[in-house]
Specification:
By secondary structure, the protein is α/β, with parallel strands linked by helices. It is built from ten helices and eight strands. The protein has an eight-stranded parallel barrel with strand order 1-2-3-4-5-6-7-8. The relative contact order is 0.15.
């Protein structure tokens, strides 16, 4: 099993200075990111359909980086779309598909999307409309914690996203099961007051590593979404080191490290 670690997004202003050099041009951010990671999750596609020229530019600026795209909110939050919208979205990411650098399309649903016939029918529709690409599903309502939900996803060819997030009513955590063709993990941090603003400790990362290693499949993708102040970058690099993957930590990030147990 191959485990890949990366970040949910790469373009954040508060990463400048702590990850990206202060004088680095914006168009070179992805090139710099690709020096440290092989995979990235594109979150901007949730807010607006990707610009085909921007997608081509990302491909041109990197040679090996592979991409997962978050599906636009019209497919997950509004859940009102036409066939033409599907075609338009897929056309925007066509260059990534052609170069075989596509990981999956992420459908991340809000907590208000609850288990029930209507929701299951919507998942069926998405599996059919996007049948030509690999798909992963992240549900946040605990109502989906049902044993029959997992084989339902399997039958549709959908993979389940395993999540780590603050404990409480808001998130459906885990379930740390292998469901679907690939393994997919998203780590949102554990700060109940401010989501995405959290730095995992090495002990926490070690426990997550063991959960990830128990997932089945040829490929598992782990994306850190605790993006505030580049904490995702630090933790993703630490996670790679804990997996035994040789990598470097940028000087600016090294100053924030206190433990170096991977050395």
């Amino acid at each position: 099993m191959r485990i890949y670690a990366g970040c949910s997004g790469f373009f954040y202003r508060d990463w400048v200075g702590c990850f990206y050099p202060a004088l680095l041009k914006r168009e070179d951010y992805i090139r710099f990111y690709a020096e440290y990671f092989d995979v990235v999750e594109i979150n901007a596609s949730f807010y607006s359909f990707p610009n085909p020229n921007s997608v081509k530019s990302m491909l041109q600026r990197t040679s090996k980086l592979r991409f997962a795209f978050k599906a636009h909110r019209s497919f997950t939050h509004y859940r009102v779309y036409e066939k033409e919208d599907v075609k338009k979205f897929l056309n925007t990411i066509e260059p990534v598909l052609k170069e075989d650098r596509f990981i999956a399309l992420l459908f991340q649903f809000p907590e208000s999307f609850k288990y029930g016939e209507e929701s299951l029918e919507h998942l069926k529709r998405l599996s059919e409309d996007f049948r030509t690409v690999r798909k992963v599903v992240e549900v946040r309502s605990k109502s989906f914690k049902k044993s029959d939900f997992y084989p339902f996803l399997e039958e549709l060819g959908l993979s389940l996203v395993n999540t780590d997030a603050p404990k409480g009513k808001r998130f459906f955590l885990g379930p740390w099961l292998s469901v679907g063709p690939i393994g997919y993990v998203r780590l949102h941090g554990r700060n109940p007051e401010k989501l995405y603003d959290y730095q995992y400790s090495l002990e926490e990362l070690k426990r997550i590593r063991e959960k990830v290693r128990k997932l089945k499949g040829e490929e598992v993708y782990v994306f850190f979404n605790n993006t505030v102040r580049a904490q995702a970058v630090l933790n993703a690099l630490q996670f790679k080191l804990l997996l035994g993957v040789k990598t470097e930590v940028p000087t600016n990030l090294q100053r924030s490290l206190r433990e170096k147990e991977w050395e």
